Amino acid sequence: YSTVPVIAIDGPTASGKGAVAQAVAAHLGFHYLDSGALYRLVALLALDNNWQQSDELTADKISELVHWANTLNAVFDVEHGGEYILLNNIEVSARIREEATGNMASKIAVCQPLRAALLQRQRDFAQSPGLVADGRDMGSVVFPNAPLKIFLNADARVRAERRYKQLIGKGFSANMSDLLHDLQARDARDMSRAHAPLKPVEGAFVLDSSSLTLDETVKAVLDLYAAVADSTAV
Ligand code: CDP
Ligand code: CDP
User: How many domains does the chain have?
Assistant: First the structure.
């Protein structure tokens, strides 16, 4: 699906995918795709329309999701020395990172027509000289021919602590036991869904970052990529 090299980084919430993928992309001069942000943007539209976490995904709701995905008006800008995201010309950089948004994203992400509607938009990020993409199904569905696939994992408690620090650092309030509970619920839903479930795809390198620093994890991915690039001359 793409002629440029893609590094696919999949894994559960707060395993470090985003931080690692951005650092690897910066190091290689590659583009970066945060696929979860697309699901989070559609989740924001659902929340703006007063959807509840407990709502059933009826046929009407599914067509609404597909419509939002097809008409998604989003701007991603990482040049501002941080993340800057616009949805329908309104800045949502902070709201998109709230746990409520992530939980709604995980809820709507079970919907296959929504996933199909977001597919091409994700593939369009594969531009020269290459792409680092993070999410749940980068290696399995979106970029199945990626020369390097990583499954990044870490203990649930370590991940909850990372997310806690990250949220507090951004000025949000957070509670460890709620975070751990939500994170485990989200993992369970992401792993058990029928379409594009979260699991290491064949050929993926499983990397456990529980006891690694961010820099060590980034280096591990760069080393793996150097080995792959050497052997395939990409
Ligand atoms: O940062 P975190 O891992 O918490 O979440 P994210 O990557 O922003 O993704 C939010 C939710 O979107 C996940 O819980 C998944 O259910 C869904 N998602 C997905 O289904 N497929 C992707 N490629 C990326 C995210
Ligand atoms: O994208 P994902 O939800 O998988 O995680 P993230 O938002 O990239 O990372 C969660 C937090 O863990 C960030 O603040 C990272 O700096 C931190 N972290 C990490 O990613 N890797 C480590 N080995 C240690 C900390």
Answer: 1
